[in-house]
Design goal:
CATH superfamily of the largest domain in chain B: Butyryl-CoA Dehydrogenase, subunit A, domain 3
Strand order of the largest sheet of chain B: 1-4-5-8
CATH superfamily of one domain in chain A: Butyryl-CoA Dehydrogenase, subunit A, domain 3
Oligomer: heterodimer
Largest sheet of chain B: 4 strands, mixed
Shape of chain A: globular
Strand content of chain B: 5-15%
Radius of gyration of chain B: 21 Å
CATH topology of one domain in chain A: Butyryl-CoA Dehydrogenase, subunit A, domain 3
Number of helices of chain B: 11
Order of helices and strands of chain B: HHHHHEEEEEEEEHHHHHH
Number of domains of chain B: 3
Shape of chain B: globular
Radius of gyration of chain A: 19 Å
Family (chain A): Belongs to the acyl-CoA dehydrogenase family.
CATH architecture of the largest domain in chain B: Up-down Bundle
Largest interface: A-B, 50 and 55 residues
Organism (chain A): Streptomyces cupreus
Distance between the termini of chain B: 40 Å
Keywords (chain A): FAD, Flavoprotein, Oxidoreductase
Protein name (chain A): Acyl-CoA/acyl-ACP dehydrogenase
Order of helices and strands of chain A: HHHEEHHHEEEEEEEHEEHHHH
Structural class of chain B: alpha+beta
Strand content of chain A: 5-15%
GO molecular function (chain A): acyl-CoA dehydrogenase activity; flavin adenine dinucleotide binding
Number of strands of chain B: 8
């Protein structure tokens, strides 16, 4: 048992961190939310080049084989930088499609709807899939864009389309969708905490940085605790891939990110409540990810199903 | 990165499981916090020790199995899954023993550890004083030099297990006028039945004498019972506190077993919708705590010290433990009020968690200042 990322995994994280850190993602996100995808497409290409979309794809399809730990680590970074686009959905589609090469290379983006009324970013996706109990369908078009609480997430209904396969690998696709959403939420929470810590060190009231006040410290300490206990669930789920672990990771990561968002908003005060402040890009995503790919209620029900010593 | 265990680790786990199946009492022992229960738990420690299961991770010469940290974690999972009794010797095993391994002499280890392992000598802690709680360094109990040792005088309080324990360990002020309050403290072990010691049991919320006040009047302690250098007790004790807050005080196995018991209770009560989320969160929290501990153990095995991040752990488990037991009592309906159930016993025990071993307010200060880098301020 060695439950820590190894040297190569840490190097992979650092390289993604460096790449995304120099990408000015707030500008990319703001463009994306206005339907301007040029910068987002360029960044997408670099993410593909880093190998992210090949982490759930077999080598014969240009992928790196199924590497769920690397996938989870990558999605934490994507969340940390609030990268926009159908990231989770493209990974999910890469598992569902027999021919995922164009997704791996970054030439194509994909979106997937499952159960719910919307697919994410169908207006920009090249491949639109509807996963249903009857099989996997490819949709020729999409409905009008409906705004999400996270302006960078563009919601559309999908038109019915042709049946690709009646028996797609739904279980694995949903597991990875849930895992990557959990990891992304964890990353969102980590940045919300970082930005808020920076803010409360700088912001002075009553002659002292507000971060020296215990009421402020303790809220941030609680956010730190929630995030640090969600992190091992995300990595553990990546190792075991069991439904209970996936659901536990999704619940804990989304709860932690959302609680951190509430704290971040409160401790930033009024400036945090504005769309102009970059914090908003993460605040709203923390809310949106909670209900994406498994609501807290659905996930808790999965954790409770089954019995005996599960862990 | 992996969560797999070696053949040796799995073998030890299987061996522990088989032993526990054959030995764990069918009926729960009486409460650890009563005289009768204390004696029963002491006898259980002797039974464990006879087959080297009381301190698996200690070296064999002191009664252990020389087991690794991973072995210990797996043993604990089995121990709690088997519903085995609470551990009466945990103050000594979790707090004093690690200090002796780091700072004690070979003579002290040989003399103190084997009877600790067998439950023959049960240890109480003597940290807090009436005027020194969270601000422990302000403590005033004195150790005064005398021929061949020290004389202890003063008052200690909230001394867990002291009502029935044999010996105690704690910090005393050996320099009455130090430059800083953390200096001039000495770490000593003493006999609770020595002349000059008065033990006055304190009844906790449910009336059981779970802790005690200690009045010390020129209690003689020989030099051989000083741990480390006189005057350096703070640093030594903080290493103990680090252990206490860190990996050893609450093993993940305990909460995995409690969460599973809660899930069974919930199912027995017809899986009520109203408590569903709280029961799920208990399962999720136990898994999170287990994996968090595996990660910490992995870092420890890489040679890293467990530092201020142990404060994350302490706040998490202490609040988790209360929430889990609140849910259980709510599920019991009107029976939730009964004080004689195992759930009630555990609930009352859990209520103390956020207070001892460094209050959760102190822990949150440590997290904010030392992990997040926020500026120090007035408490």
């Amino acid at each position: 048992m060695r439950f820590l990322p190894d040297v190569e995994q840490r190097a992979f994280v650092s390289s993604l961190d460096a790449m995304l850190g120099s990408a000015d993602t707030p500008t990319v996100v703001r463009d994306w939310s206005r339907g301007r995808h040029t910068r987002g497409r360029a960044l997408w290409g670099r993410i593909a080049e880093a190998g992210v979309f090949g982490l759930a794809v077999p080598e014969e399809c240009d992928g790196l084989g199924l590497r769920p730990v690397e996938l989870a680590l990558a999605f934490v970074e994507l969340g940390r930088y609030a990268v926009p686009g159908p990231l989770v959905e493209t990974v999910t589609a890469a598992v569902l499609l027999a021919e995922p090469k164009r997704l791996v290379s970054g030439e194509a983006m994909a979106t997937v709807s499952y159960g719910g009324p919307y697919a994410l970013d169908a207006d920009v996706a090249d491949i639109r899939l509807a996963l249903t109990p009857d099989g996997l369908f490819r949709s020729p078009g999409h409905g009008p864009v409906r705004p999400s609480i996270d302006p960078a997430r563009r919601l559309t209904a999908l038109e019915a389309g042709e049946l690709l396969t009646p028996a797609p690998p739904t279980g694995q696709a949903l597991a990875l969708a849930r895992l990557t959403t959990a990891a992304q939420a964890l990353g969102v929470g980590l940045t919300l905490l970082d930005k808020t810590v920076t803010h409360v060190k700088r912001r002075t009231q009553f002659g002292a940085p507000i971060g020296s006040f215990q009421a402020v410290k303790h809220r941030l300490a609680d956010a730190k605790i929630a995030l640090e206990f969600a992190r091992p669930l995300v990595l553990g789920a990546a190792l075991t891939l069991t439904p209970a672990d996936m659901a536990a990771a999704k619940t804990a990561a989304c709860e932690a990110a959302y609680a951190t968002a509430r704290t971040a908003l409160q401790l930033h005060g009024a400036i945090g409540y504005t769309a102009e402040c970059d914090l908003s890009l993460w605040l709203t995503k923390a809310r949106a990810l909670r209900t994406a790919w498994g609501s807290p209620e659905e996930c808790r029900a999965v954790v409770l199903s089954g019995g005996g010593r599960r862990w | 990165m992996d969560l797999t265990f070696t053949a040796e680790e799995t073998a030890l786990r299987d061996q522990a499981r088989a032993w526990l199946r054959a030995h764990v009492p069918a009926e729960p022992l009486p409460s650890l916090e009563t005289e009768e229960g204390f004696a029963a738990h002491r006898a259980w420690e002797a039974e464990l020790a006879a087959d080297r299961w009381s301190v698996v991770n200690w070296p064999t010469e002191y009664g252990g199995r020389g087991a690794s940290l991973v072995d210990w974690l797996l043993f604990e999972e089995e121990y709690h899954a088997a519903g085995a009794p609470g551990r009466v010797g945990q103050n000594g095993v979790n707090l004093l023993a690690p200090t002796l391994f780091d700072f004690g002499t070979a003579e002290q280890r040989a003399r103190v550890l084997p009877p600790m392992a067998s439950g023959e000598v049960v240890w109480a802690q003597a940290w807090s004083e009436p005027e020194a709680g969270s601000d422990l360094a302000s403590l005033r109990s004195r150790a005064t030099r005398t021929d061949g040792g020290w004389l202890l005088s003063g008052q200690k309080t909230w001394s867990s297990r002291a009502a029935f324990a044999d010996r105690a360990f704690g910090l005393f002020r050996s320099d009455p006028d130090p430059a800083k309050p953390h200096q001039g403290l000495t770490y000593l072990m003493f006999d609770l039945r020595a002349p000059g010691v008065t033990v006055r049991p304190i009844r906790r919320l449910d009336g059981k004498p779970a802790f005690a006040e200690l009045f010390l009047d020129e209690v003689f302690v020989p030099d051989e019972d000083v741990i480390g250098e006189p005057g350096h007790g703070w640093r030594i004790a903080m290493s103990t506190a680090g252990n206490e807050r860190g990996l050893m005080l609450r093993s993940p196995g305990r909460f995995l077993a409690s969460a599973e018991r809660l899930r069974r209770l919930w199912a027995e009560k017809g899986s009520p919708e109203g408590t569903k989320a709280r029961v799920a969160d208990a399962l999720i929290g136990a898994r999170a705590y287990q994996l968090f501990t595996y990660a910490a153990a992995s870092r420890f095995l890489d040679g890293e010290r467990i530092g201020p991040e142990s404060s994350l752990n302490k706040v998490f488990w202490s609040e988790y433990d209360i929430a889990l037991h609140e849910t259980a009592l709510d599920l019991l309906g009107e029976d939730g009020e009964s004080a004689d159930t195992d759930w009630a016993e555990r609930y009352v025990f859990a209520l103390a968690g956020p207070i001892y071993a460094g209050t959760n307010e102190i822990q949150r200060d440590i997290i904010a200042e030392r992990l997040l880098g926020l500026p120090k301020g007035r408490r």
